[in-house]
Write a structure and sequence with these properties.
Layout (H helix, E strand, L loop, with lengths): L3 E12 L9 H4 L6 E17 L5 E4 L2 E2 L2 H16 L11 E8 L8 H17 L1 H5 L7 H13 L11 E4 L12 E5 L6 E7 L9 H11 L3 H20 L3 H20 L10 H15 L4 E4 L6 E6 H12 L6 E5 L6 E4 L2
Length: 343
């Protein structure tokens, strides 16, 4: 075993992932719908995995992880270790130190970059052949690592690539066709994602619990699942053709359908706050004034606005003027993850 560092960038879903397949089981973590995302160039997680003589030790942003959070990390290390085969024996103890350069548990996809970085650092530390054979693009090793990352967090499968990435739902019970793949490089299109922070702190309901609540109680959940594949195919085509209006319209539709299923749950699952709604309205008003941007929101209160780079500064100024907005960041299309030796 060796000490290795991985840097993985988070991603924002343009076509949303919300819900789990009923046949996937908790460990496979198969999504009920496919998704399409844009990797971001600034928000990222840096994770170091080192050998440790004593028991496992895990830290996030300088704080020791315990309880369920630590168990989740240990379980993921076990998954990576098992790729070596039954003859590998017990997994060696590890020290894991992660730093999030993105707000944690706030609906900004920190788990995507987090589990992608953990997967890569652990694979490099525990099974170096897997990462050293990771091909550019859509190689078999990259797909295997993406599938491992998905089992930690569904959106993490997409953070194994920069640019624009699609994760297909798949149909096979073992998940072998639930695979992420790049559909356009980071240089395909000079887009910006404006991250509009509408509050501070973590959200009160985690995504996994929210998905289960919607599946079990929302009358709109079935319609959400049934209509998502059409959105995914349409958005992929519009992205590849650099059709911003078409892509933006599909993106907004996917977002509002997902949140409609949440609001119809029992009890209603409302991640948004009043500032979220006002930002959405300001995006619509800006479009009416000729500033072309489209809004989306994950399972959290913050708003993301997709636009071309030339429009970003003007839209940032509009959105910063909305009462209650904490901050607006303009992020570009992000790179592939990076793996390197750690000291």
């Amino acid at each position: 075993m060796r000490a290795m560092r991985a840097t993985a960038h988070t991603n924002i879903a343009l076509v949303k992932y919300w819900g789990k397949r009923p046949d996937g089981g908790r460990d496979l973590n198969l999504p009920a719908v496919g998704s399409l995302s844009m990797t971001l160039d600034e928000y990222r997680t840096v994770t170091v995995v080192r050998p440790r003589a004593a028991a496992d030790a895990f830290a996030l942003d300088g704080a020791t992880l315990t309880g369920a959070a630590a168990d989740r990390v240990a379980k993921h290390l076990d998954r990576v270790w098992r790729t070596r085969g039954a003859e590998a024996g017990p997994r060696p103890s590890c020290e894991v130190d992660s730093v999030n350069h993105v707000p944690t548990a706030a609906g900004l996809a920190s788990s995507a970059s987090g589990f992608a970085a953990l997967t890569l650092a652990a694979a490099a530390a525990l099974s170096e052949d897997m990462v050293e054979g990771m091909a550019e693009g859509d190689g078999a090793d990259r797909r295997l690592l993406s599938a491992l990352a998905r089992r930690g967090s569904g959106s993490a499968a997409r953070s194994l690539w920069g640019g624009f990435v699609r994760l297909d739902r798949g149909e096979e019970a073992d998940g072998r066709d639930c695979i992420a793949r790049p559909v356009a490089s980071r240089h395909h299109w000079d887009l910006k994602m404006l991250i509009v922070h509408t509050t501070t702190g973590a959200k009160t309901v985690g995504s996994t619990g929210g998905m289960e609540l919607c599946k079990n109680t929302s009358p709109y959940y079935g319609a959400w699942v049934a209509s998502s594949q059409r959105d995914l195919d349409s958005a992929t085509s519009r992205l590849q053709n650099r059709d911003l209006r078409g892509l933006g319209e599909v993106m907004e539709h996917s977002c509002f359908k997902m949140h409609a299923s949440m609001w119809a749950a029992r009890p209603p699952l409302i991640y948004w706050n009043g500032v979220t709604v006002e930002v959405m309205r300001e995006v619509q008003r800006a479009r009416a004034d000729g500033l072309q941007g489209w809004a989306t929101s994950d399972a959290g209160p913050h708003v993301k606005v997709l636009c071309e780079a030339a429009t970003a500064d003007a839209l940032v100024a509009r959105l910063e003027s909305v009462v209650g907005v904490v901050d607006v960041k303009a992020l570009g299309v992000g790179p592939d993850p990076k793996v390197e030796a750690a000291t």
